[in-house]
């Protein structure tokens, strides 16, 4: 299994609709990963490869309580600059299917 990461110039859509430009003066950029442990699942045709036999204490089954949900919503409202799940200009035919997935 491999993991890839990349940077791309999304100035025209991902930075407040192009109003905030990326500062490329710091290029070239370097990223590194240390002690990374990925426990991933493959989603195909709406089905997950993740086992449903995880113990109830597993992070797979954890849910946010009302206080945590309210905190997350506050952070999103006050700090989140962009989410493609609400970008109807980029996706005039409808946002990607993962945007409809409730977590």
From TrEMBL:
<feature type="domain" description="GH16">
    <location>
        <begin position="1"/>
        <end position="26"/>
    </location>
</feature>
<keyword id="KW-0134">Cell wall</keyword>
<dbReference type="GO" id="GO:0004553">
    <property type="term" value="F:hydrolase activity, hydrolyzing O-glycosyl compounds"/>
</dbReference>
<keyword id="KW-0964">Secreted</keyword>
<dbReference type="GO" id="GO:0044042">
    <property type="term" value="P:glucan metabolic process"/>
</dbReference>
<keyword id="KW-0961">Cell wall biogenesis/degradation</keyword>
<dbReference type="GO" id="GO:0048046">
    <property type="term" value="C:apoplast"/>
</dbReference>
<keyword id="KW-0326">Glycosidase</keyword>
<protein>
    <recommendedName>
        <fullName>xyloglucan:xyloglucosyl transferase</fullName>
        <ecNumber>2.4.1.207</ecNumber>
    </recommendedName>
</protein>
<keyword id="KW-0378">Hydrolase</keyword>
<dbReference type="InterPro" id="IPR000757">
    <property type="entry name" value="Beta-glucanase-like"/>
</dbReference>
<dbReference type="GO" id="GO:0016762">
    <property type="term" value="F:xyloglucan:xyloglucosyl transferase activity"/>
</dbReference>
<dbReference type="Pfam" id="PF00722">
    <property type="entry name" value="Glyco_hydro_16"/>
</dbReference>
<dbReference type="InterPro" id="IPR010713">
    <property type="entry name" value="XET_C"/>
</dbReference>
<dbReference type="GO" id="GO:0071555">
    <property type="term" value="P:cell wall organization"/>
</dbReference>
<dbReference type="InterPro" id="IPR044791">
    <property type="entry name" value="Beta-glucanase/XTH"/>
</dbReference>
<dbReference type="InterPro" id="IPR013320">
    <property type="entry name" value="ConA-like_dom_sf"/>
</dbReference>
<keyword id="KW-0732">Signal</keyword>
<dbReference type="Pfam" id="PF06955">
    <property type="entry name" value="XET_C"/>
</dbReference>
<keyword id="KW-0052">Apoplast</keyword>
<feature type="domain" description="Xyloglucan endo-transglycosylase C-terminal">
    <location>
        <begin position="55"/>
        <end position="99"/>
    </location>
</feature>
<keyword id="KW-0808">Transferase</keyword>
